[in-house]
Amino acid sequence: MTAKEKFKAELSLDGKPTGPEKDRKFVEALSRGLDVLRAFSQGSVILGNQDIARLTGLPKPTVSRMTYTLTKLGYLSYNPLLEKYQLSSGVLALGYAYVSNLKVRQLAKPYMDEFARRTNMSVGLTCHDRLHMIYVENRMPPEATLLRMEIGLRLPMATTSAGRAYCAAISDSGRKILMDGMAKKYGDQWPEKKEGLERAMEEYKTSGFCLSLGEWDRNINSAGVPVHLEDGTIMVLTCAAPSYLISGEKLRESIAHQLAMLASDIEALGV
After folding, report:
1. In angstroms, rounded to a whole number, what is the distance separating the alpha carbons of residues 238 and 203?
2. Smaller CB count within 10 Å for the chain: N or C?
């Protein structure tokens, strides 16, 4: 599957109409501008108009107008030597506004710090973004230097404990939309990834957590548990460590159950 096809597979995953012919309230120009910004999340930090057009499928003249406008508004910056664009501070300000106003993040920090200290594992709080989960907080044990997951890091849905726990917690209709999107994104690789995802979701039914044992990164074992907020939002709490420090057996038999208790404690805060 091409980069453009993968990018398109991640769009329109809420099951709603996405074009003016289907929804008169839908602003097509705004949608295209956001598609341009999202193109920078596909791995490259600097892109030209031609690169963006290839990723998004938008006509190059449209992309040129969008990048010009986004640069004027402070969301992109232009490198005249390379004749390419990169994200600017305007995007960072939006992301920071979201994270800094996330009440659950502030209230959960001391609980996550204690869990990290006690288990010697990295503990993260993630939110859903199309076919990914994104870190909005990550806490480390006092002396750990490994697995420092930066805020804003995107995790694939199918192979990580965060993505698997999210899929296990949402409605059947929402899960179908995500599964269809992942099938389009992964193509021939989807049957193998689907098998691991479904196996993890079955374990969630009996144990209350999902695992990823070397399936996202062969050196990392992790567990994920959904956190249900009062407004209906579902986030996912995760813990992770190198496999040589925390075995899959220890994670399944002990630590993942503790993570599920931590998720319950955070939900009890009433956020």
Report:
1. 16
2. N
Give the span between the Cα atoms of 186 and 209, in whole angstroms: 25
Q: pLDDT tens digits for 164-187?
A: 999 999 999 999 999 999 999 999
The backbone region for 187, taken as left when phi is positive above 0, alpha when psi lies in -120 to 50, beta otherwise, is left
| CB neighbour burial string for 46-69, b if at least 16 within 10 angstroms, e if fewer | ebbbebbbbbbebeeebbebbbee
Going from the C-alpha of 88 to that of each of 65, 149, 236, 240, 252, the distances in angstroms are 17, 22, 29, 31, 42
Helix (H, G, I), strand (E, B) or coil at 169: helix
Composition of the chain by helix, strand, coil, percent to 5: 50, 20, 30
Question: What phi, psi does 47 have (nearest 5°)?
Answer: -140, 145
**What's the CA gap between 211 and 156, in Å, rounded?**
14
Distance between CA 8 and CA 58 in Å, rounded?
11
User: What pTM was computed for the model?
Assistant: 0.79
Q: Please determine, for residue 200, whether its predicted confidence score (pLDDT) is greater than 90.
A: yes
Contact 76, 64 (CB under 8 A): no
Query: What is the predicted pLDDT for the residue at 13?
Result: 54
Cβ–Cβ contacts within 10 Å for residue 98, how many?
A: 12
Q: Are residues 52 and 39 in contact, defined by beta-carbon separation less than 8 angstroms?
A: yes
C-alpha span between 133 and 124 (Å, rounded): 11
β partners of residue 139: 123
The answer to whether 23 touches 30, Cβ cutoff 8 Å, is no
pLDDT at 21: 53
Q: Which residues pair with 117 in a beta bridge?
A: none
